Amino acid sequence: MRIAVVGCGVAGMAAARALARKGHVVTLLEAFQQPRPLGSGLLLQPSGLAALRQLGLAEQVVARGARVERLDGRDLRGRLIMDMRYADWRPDAFGVGVHRATLFDILHDGLESAGVALRTGVDVASFEHGAAPVLVDTAGARHGPFDLVVVADGSASRLRAQLRPDAKAPVYPWGAVWANARDETGAFAGSLSQRYDRASTMMGVLPIGRGPDGGRAELVSFFWSLPVTQMDGFLSGDLAAWRRRAVAMWPQAAPIVEQFQDPAQFSRASYRDVRVGRWSQGPFVLIGDAAHGTSPQLGQGANMGIIDAVELAERLGEDAPRSVRGFQAARRRHAGLYQFMSRWLTPMFQSGGWLGPFVRDAVFTPMSKAPGGRQIAARALTGTLRLGRTPKSLRP
């Protein structure tokens, strides 16, 4: 089958590799002349690692990332709000914090040897619909025809608006700035650590291994949550004053915070709440953030995109439109559950009022102590909550 994958991000590259491994003729189209990762660090869950294992890449990710065994979230008084441990799901379970550039390199390296034709500088703008669609880029060049088009161009997808004009993808009013730093003493090893000032300020530290350059120092990604409207002010503001505020809120993070001397060290991240309905339209199918983008509260963005990619390749048969309808029905029972949870959780961690953090503090701490509560929380954390059966090949 002739397949086009639009977008050279995590989901797109995973899909291209998974489909090529099944013997399809795959063309990966990317708008940038030089594909590059966006963002700082991310957390891969056991469910996503199971999908990477099907691509033969899990061992590389584990070796180059950092093992994460728990999520520890506390308020400014040090009171434990979030205590989620992978061992509550399985004794040997863990997540992997990884630099985005490291994951990008692992997926990107060997694309051509895997049978994927990578074409850069192709900014797909529209398509000529039909049984075998042709894609048209912004320069007017035509690409195709294809038997299937996999749309993986992110939460701000251009093609999604043409395929599913009723889809909604508003930008969350809150986002974050990210930067990487050295963890010289290993103080943050093994845990995604967060601190909350109600829900108006959230900061965290995620171990991500040694980074794409293979240096000697263990790295962490530091994030600071703030309204999207305040990002420009942060990046052009008084960083020294910000450092004093951050250290006052979280003294233990001082060795990390003091490494940030220039706003240029930070990258910005904004998020969309993507609501599409059906992901497929004839020989087109949306995957990853183009289909189900959410806030980062459950750490599932890259995870779900990789699972989409591998499961699509597993389910694809000779009748592409029929196959993708079955694929999206099955995947929505998984990703849709996390979209729902993320939608309700976000105001509890990123909002300006008192109600969200009040509900958070009143619910999560007692729930973590209730019978079975820790196990349910661990299932949510690992990405293994699913309505319906998980394909055998994707079971962690």
Describe the structure.
46% of the residues are buried. The longest helix has 30 residues, at 320-349. The two termini are 29 Å apart. By secondary structure, the protein is α/β, with parallel strands linked by helices. Helix content is 35%, strand content 25%. The strands form 3 sheets. Strands 3, 4, 5, 6, 12, 13, 14, 15 and 16 form a 9-stranded mixed β-sheet that branches. Strands 7-2-1-11-18-17 form a 6-stranded mixed β-sheet. It has a domain at 2-37 and 54-61 and 102-170 and 273-394: FAD/NAD(P)-binding domain. It has 13 helices and 18 strands.
In angstroms, what separates the terminal alpha carbons?
Answer: 29 Å
For the sheet with most strands, the description reads:
9 strands, mixed
What is the 3D form? globular
- Count every helix, treating DSSP H or I runs of 4 or more residues as helices: 13
Oligomer state equals: single chain
CATH superfamily of the domain at 2-37 and 54-61 and 102-170 and 273-394: FAD/NAD(P)-binding domain
Give the beta-strand count: 18
Q: Give Rg in angstroms.
A: 21 Å
Helix content: 25-40%
